[in-house]
Amino acid sequence: MMRSRPRLNLVRVIVFGWFVLASAGSTGAAGAEKHPFGINDYSALHQARAVAISPDGKTILIVVSYDGDKGPTKREWYLFDATGENRRKLELPESFEPQDFMKDGAALYGSFEVAKKGQLAIVPLDSAKPTRIISLPNGAHRFELSPDGTRFAVISDPRAKDPLADVRHVVENEVSSFYVASASSDAGAWWCPELKDISDFAWSADGAQLAAVTRFQKIGHHDVRSAIYVCGASGARQIADVNNAVAGIAWANGGKDLAFASTTTDVLTPDHLWTVAATGGTPGDQTPKLDGSVESVANDPRGTVWVMMQEGTSAEIYSYRDGKLAPAYRWPGGAIFGAPVRSAFTSSSAALAFTVSDPMHSSNVAVLNGSELQKITQEGDDTLANVALGEVRVVNWTAKDGTHLEGVLTLPANYVSGKKYPLLVLPHGGPEANDSLRLDTLPRTIAGLGYVVIQPEYRGSTGYGSDFLQAIYQHFGDRAYQDDESATDFAIAQGWADPNRLAIFGWSAGGFMTSWTVTRTQRYKAAIEGAGITDWLSFIPESDISQVDYDMGYQEKDAAPFLEFSAVMFADKVTTPLLILHGEADQRVPMLQGREYFVLLAERGKTVRMVTYPGSPHFPMLAEQRRNVFQELCDWLTKYNPAN
What we know:
By secondary structure, the chain is an alpha+beta fold. It has a domain at 387-640: Alpha/Beta hydrolase fold, catalytic domain (Rossmann fold), CATH 3.40.50. The longest helix has 18 residues, at 476-493. The relative contact order is 0.11. Residues 1-31 have low confidence and may be disordered.
């Protein structure tokens, strides 16, 4: 998928986090004989995520989610003792999504839907309804309680509500400014009204100031630039300009500096740790020779900056304190997702919770036990106890041009060495993203169909240093394509894959890779592309975020670089049966990208099918639509590249 950049304040849906899918063919029957992961397992599979820790550090708020058979993702909220004992379910208002504890630990604050807009609400633990709602005309987009517990910082649009919003929509950039509200009264005011495009923020340790990141928005700007400010009740003070994207902001080194993730590459994806003096100055790269990628940073009022680090297929937590960056926490054989969950109101440095996963287990919550992490939830284990899961390996190879590459290989259960299996190549979205070691149910269920699945970390993937990331700029259609093709060659050379039974599938950036690949080669028997880019010339201005990291040139100056890697320009070359899947409400990669390609292929007599999903954004939010995505995928593979 196209990445969800931090400056958008969007939920990180993606790098296949949405793909908790499964084959419709499994019966899911219980018993001693295990079965491949299937639709019944998918529907039942639960996963847990750490949300918040109480001020005394003794209680953890956890959300348990599962897809179910229909509708949006189901969520249940629980309190656990930090030991993992004394689990109790919370009965919260239906539209309330808690974010953290209030300072007294007796209530939660979070998002509560009012008139179809999310607002900031406070709900006591012993109550089924909010006792206070901070309602703003255009809703609350993000909020955080100050470290002293006295006030909230809220991101919202300060403009008056549009009286004609139900009649027409004016196309313009969103406005996001600070509203600071008292935690205990109706007092509140707009801070730093000159800041109108805030993408991230962090409270100072004393709760007196906010560090803020602003960024150029899509409309009216061809390039991407960010700025860092310190905002207080008296106004804003600009600290630095950043000629690129920024992810996260944190107070560092006792409040003397501000830390953030950014980059010097052309691909606009932050990958290094930077700091700048809180009084202003020139930002400095603290990781100039980094072999991995800094995904983002998180603020901690106790003085540590938490750094989310990708190193190959591993996702770990580093700490930055007193000018030193060091490894802090990792999950052996798996990955940690997001920053540690902590409370601003406790002095305990050990009161941390983590969300972890590995290829054999669903996402769960872990806490510190001495210096190691220990899981305190076991969501999904009951479902997976009846499932046969094949081996997952990290594999390495060298492409023909000498590029060293890595990928994740998923083998079918009961894999027989020396036997050749049908192969599915699964390029990830982003493209500046990666596949980490976790329970990824998409390759699991495809492997359950009898396939070997390989997920190549092509050039442009994060986790392998800036040069590897930069290599995709203006070369998505040749270098990244060549890397994916080398993954297929490698799987064949290793004896895993039958060269006569090859398939390819990807979503978003992986969808582009699929649509492009079938114009270059006839080796694949089946191809499925989801929400893929097919026409770069129209896509770059149409997408809801800036996509000039593929080529920063202006189209009217020279259209050739945009057409060079556009699959629609080579529709006559396609011979592989192609399935196109797309959400009708997709703003990241608008649906007409898929339709344009579909119409051109159909009128040329190609084997092609297109399925769209009403109301669906970049990937469907409803279980029945997600399940249909996989059903279409499964049926297409069965018809054009059967496993048996």
